[in-house]
Amino acid sequence: MNLGLKTGLLGTAAALALAVAGVPAYAQDDLSALRQQLETMKERLAKLEADKADKRRVAAAAAVEAGDKPRSWKLPGTNTSMNIGGFVKMSLLYDLGGTGLVSGNLPTEGFGAGFSPVGGSVADNTFNGGHFQLTARRSRFWIQTWTPTDWGELRTYIEGDFAGFGNIPGVAPPGSSGNVLRLRQAFGALGPVLVGKTQTLFGGLIGLPELLHDGAPMALGALRIEQIRYSHNFGGGLVLHVALESGAVNIADTGIHDVIGGTCTGSVCAPLAAAAYNSFAGFQGPSRWPDVVAALQWNFPNGALYGSGMIGQRNVDRAGTVPGLNSNDSAFIWGAALGGRYDFGRVEIGFNGGVGQGVGNKYFDGGATGFIDAVLITNATLGSSDLRPVLTYGALGYVQVKLTDTIRTTGAFNWVMEEVASEVPGYYTNPTSRTVLTGVVNYYWAAFGNILWNPVPQVTFGAEYGYQFASRYNGPNTQVHRLQLAAIYRF
After folding, report:
1. Nearest in space to 101 (alpha carbons), one of 82, 114, 88
2. Total-model pTM
3. C-alpha triplet 481, 484, 488: angle, nearest 5°
């Protein structure tokens, strides 16, 4: 309220009060009128004070308040806390050399020894002269909110980066952008139920090392899949998760169902081109059921354990263009994994490993191993097909040492193998059958070492060396030597 107006009203009211008090007896007839005027002015003053209070409340609602979560704020006029975060990552990559790599397929920031496509023109020592690149494609951002409700906390989360497919040799056509915005995660959670796209429950992120490399080594749990999840906290650090996850996965997140084919007569087989089996460049079939995945996590002082398992079904279906190759089949797949970490103070150790059939590319690949999930064996004479899931197993271990409060160093080793030859009839007895697996990865291993420095908590500078090796059937093995420097700025 205007100070002069308020003072004037108060003064007038006081004068009227004095006048009423000093009225002589012969003027008592005017007393009631004077009292009425005083009451009217009091009511006007009260209304002006109420209007001022309302304006203060509106201004307070429009102001930014601290949220209920760390680094969050309240959306004006609501009880919803919001947070925006992410990081800028700039990587300098130098491939010191590589052998057995396919000519014309230059490595990306997620490049692995098993990733190089099979077939085509093989050029030994392709990168012996080195290959240099700078990229910021792995920069990331996210937006999340939290709202208390009668049904529990409502959380929303959206995350993206710029590592979508575009102008990647062998994957996307020339001329397309190499910095395509990619949806990494998008989910909503109300109480214990989560619906949307986020990390798979299989494998978990517990037990994975802190590396600068963006595609390797084996990364159980790093795959992001659309799902419906339920979580139950038993207390004492014990949490159970159960989910229905999509069996079909977008190629932009890797982990597609990858199948190689063979056409056989008795125990003699020859390679089966995907285009001969259907009209697509792959043996992809319909996804009829979601995968069922469960995980049990135990958090305890200085460490955690994470066990998980999954079951599902994979299919190939009719669409043949060649007589006798238009049949269909389905197969049961499964997997089990265990991860853990423990912090001794200055030293942290961790591991992550698993085994399964039909899950090598989807869950074990990490963009590096180049594994397949199944072998499709067809009989041209009988017109039958047999989809055979491949057994895959492997493990990863790491040690991280905190040299100072701001400097740490990490060493990691990964080994993983798939028993694909056992799924091809006559592979060990007939040279012709061996051609079915020409160029397919048998086993893969990698070793990484880095040193990381945080001059301030929001900034990380690091240097990392990685060596990757992939043993291939009936073809040259592949290996990659890579030096990576990176700067990460968080917000």
Report:
1. 114
2. 0.81
3. 160
